[in-house]
Amino acid sequence: MSENSVFKTDKRIKLGVWGLGRGAYLVHQAKFLNIDVVAGCDIHPDMRECFAKNTPGAFVTADEDEFLAQDFDAVLIATYFKDHAKHTIKALNAGKHVMCEVTAFHTPADGVKVVEAVEKSGKVYNLLENYPFTKENMYIRDLWQKGFFGEFMYGEASYLHECRVLSYAYNTGLDGLPIEPGYHAHNWRSTLNTHYYNTHSLGPIMNITGLRPVAVSATPCDVYLPGYLGKKGTVTPSIIKMNNGALMRNLMGCTTNDYHMELRMWGTKASVEKINDLKIRVGACGGGEMLKIAPEISELQKLADQAGHGGGDFWELYYFAREILTGEPAPWNIYSAADVTLTGIMAVHSSLKDGEMVEVPDFRNKAVRDQYRNDDVYYGNAFDPENIFPEGHDPSLTGQFSELMTKLYPKSNGSGLPTYNMAYDGMKIFDNIADAEGKLRIISRVSRLIECLPTLADAIKTARKIADAYPESLPGKMLYDVLDSVDCEKICNVEQTTAELRTWLENRHKI
Ligand SMILES: NC(=O)c1ccc[n+]([C@@H]2O[C@H](COP(=O)([O-])OP(=O)(O)OC[C@H]3O[C@@H](n4cnc5c(N)ncnc54)[C@H](O)[C@@H]3O)[C@@H](O)[C@H]2O)c1
After folding, report:
1. pLDDT value at position 11?
2. 100 in ligand 1 pocket by Cβ < 6 Å?
3. What is the pLDDT of residues 308-331, one digit of tens each?
4. Mean pLDDT value across residues 367-388
């Protein structure tokens, strides 16, 4: 497919990107969708530099007012999670259409403000919820809307994403560096209660069925992974009631087995699951035929397949551009954006009441909105990510903290503690690994551990130094938990451990 061929019009949309991490990555296919990226804004110099290099000719600034004063039609907002509402309103007031990363707002009061700003502006607003637009989810939606599955009874969807390093670094590059200057922990990811980040799992079920959530119940889990500050590294499941009386289990959080795009849905006539393969069970009974499905691929889908998140990143730009160019409504307008966002917020409210069912308000109704106008409390983890060390701390030591966390838990998992754990746990169950390929993967993890052991040993020593200097601080307590979770003596005794690992490897080669 050639440039400019997706929409049958020469009209183009001039776009400014606000927040140049995810934002800059998302627009890779914009040119195919009549979108020209003409401006970018980020407070971080490295992000601006990278954007300027990849987008020659675009205007780049750190100043949001200067940015919004430029001549462009629409803004992609991918700034910090907690600033989405504020930035959406500011962009609408500057006369721009808005597409905003998830979620739409973080308190009900901000939600009321955003809904009313969109209504007043007459501009297009889309939430950038991409997970409903994988080719499998688009296929399921199509069949669901034709009535193939009957009425939705029950569903399970998960967005489990354990990535400790993102609590301490930006989501760029293999090791997630750099972080915003001045911070020791990430602005919002370090404090986020993952109920708030609920759209990647609830979103597909809403989009496929066309139903809206009306109530939610969430009981808190009290078990945590080490390496997160405060009460963060845990799971946040909730049970959601939909407006037809059906239920779904929505699971987010951080634990030891990630699931990003998995989904199971039961209708009254058939059921579907996308775990690895897409499968449909037909027969309108429990034990009917289970069929593996290969969705047909359109020309547009071939283009979408080149985008991130299973093609979802393409489709969300496509729908936004289509609405601006043709007036045809996109799936995630401000009201469905409010439905999905409020369900996460109300799940947090429910978990504070130990699982009491909490109503999800419908912000289409002004009288309902009036009840939430002043509800402006955000229940993140209770600490300030800019100030996690006690006053008077020694920056020559604490300045090493966020980089230390990227060494202990690198985004790539190719070194640090994940490699240590994979190697040692893999060795424990090695003889019972069923396939040669699995065994080879453990052998290569052990070889990798030998390479990175000296760096890991240094990181363990630095972690101990920081923890001992600030034992009562949040990072001090967190680092002690991390140190307790592994055999530090083994890691730091580099020579002996390396010899042990080499012997293990040699014995494997003899087999
Ligand atoms: N839909 C998805 O699949 C998906 C994936 C990743 C991130 N996200 C969302 O995208 C958003 C951005 O995520 P990210 O991964 O880029 O991480 P991030 O939140 O760390 O980065 C935001 C970027 O915005 C910049 N920024 C913050 N405040 C700013 C301001 N006032 N003016 C200019 N720039 C500012 C930061 O310097 C940073 O480069 C988040 O809200 C996240 O929820 C969505």
Report:
1. 94
2. no
3. 888 899 999 999 999 999 999 999
4. 92
Ligand 1 atom closest to Cα of residue 25: 16
Strand partners of residue 126: 99
Mean pLDDT of 255-264: 93
Q: Which of 22, 60, 129, 179 to mutate to test the pocket of ligand 1 (most atoms within 8 A of CB)?
A: 22
- How far, in Å, is the centroid of ligand 1 from the Cα of 374? 26
If you ran DSSP here, which 8-state letter would residue 180 be given? P
Shortest-distance atom of ligand 1 to CA 64: 32
Cα distances (angstroms) measured from residue 479 to each of 127, 397, 453, 502 = 37, 14, 19, 29
CB-ligand 1 contact for 170 (6 Å cutoff): yes
Give residue 86 CA to ligand 1 midpoint distance, Å: 14
Position 1 scores a pLDDT of 47
Per-residue pLDDT averaged across 239-251, rounded? 98
Backbone angles phi, psi at 242, to 5 degrees: -95, 170
Going by CA atoms, what residue is nearest to atom 22 of ligand 1? Answer: 79
Can you tell me the mean pLDDT for 389-393?
96
Region 267-282: mean pLDDT is 97
* Cα distances (angstroms) measured from residue 297 to each of 139, 240, 407: 10, 32, 41
Mean pLDDT, range 161-170, rounded to an integer: 92
Ligand 1 in contact with 101 (CB < 6 A)?
Answer: yes
Residue whose CA is at the smallest distance from ligand 1 atom 34:
42
Report the pLDDT value the prediction gives residue 183, as an integer from 0 to 100.
87
Share above pLDDT 90 across residues of the chain, in percent, rounded to a whole number: 86
Residue 47 CB less than 6 A away from ligand 1? yes
3-state DSSP: the chain helix, strand, coil percent, rounded to 5? 45, 15, 40
- Concatenated DSSP letters of 248-273: EEEEEE--SS-EEEEEEEEESS-EEE
- Alpha carbon 142 to chain centroid, angstroms: 25
CB 404 within 8 A of CB 463: yes
- 19 C-alpha vs ligand 1 centroid, how far in Å? 5
Question: Would you give the distance in Å from CA 187 to the centre of its chain?
Answer: 15
| Site to substitute for ligand 1 among 17, 25, 41, 42, most atoms within 8 A of C-beta | 42
Mean pLDDT of the chain: 95
Q: Answer yes or no: is the C-beta of 77 below 6 A from any ligand 1 atom.
A: no
Dig out the tokens for 285 from the structure: 């009974």
Dump the DSSP string for 420-489: HHHHHHHHHTGGG--SHHHHHHHHHHHHHHHHHHHHHHHHHHHHHHHHHHSTTSHHHHHHHHHHHTS-HH
Any idea of the CA torsion for 360, 380, 45, 92, to the nearest 10 degrees?
30
| Domains of the chain, CATH where assigned | 13-127 (3.40.50.720), 131-295+332-370 (3.30.360.10), 395-510 (no CATH)
